[in-house]
Amino acid sequence: MNEPAPAPTPPPKPPVGLGRHGRALWKSITAAYELRPDELEALAVAARTLEELKAMERAAAGAATLVRGPRARQVPNPMLEELRRHRATYLRALRAVGIGEADRADVKDPRARSAAGRALVRQRWANRGG
What we know:
130 residues; two-stranded antiparallel ribbon; mainly alpha; 5% strand
């Protein structure tokens, strides 16, 4: 006798305090993938960082590229360095989730293939019930 397939678990709710961009990122990834707790934490970091990044980009949009620094010299706006750091943090957090590697089957890195394999197994099991 065949047992009924277990009902799919609903995606986890986004962390409290996320804005529009962070919630959209969270929902798009958790709707497509079933993530482990460590991957959910990395996704939360990515979503929060994305919110900060969007706010900083809005603030920097009208700001000068060069500002007056020590001794009245023109120096690069410190906001540019912070934007660069936030972008790097955001990309590292997304890599920790492992989604990018799963979408690239030609990757040679064994860790990436492992992440891709996990994602494919998750999809296979998700499709098995439907």
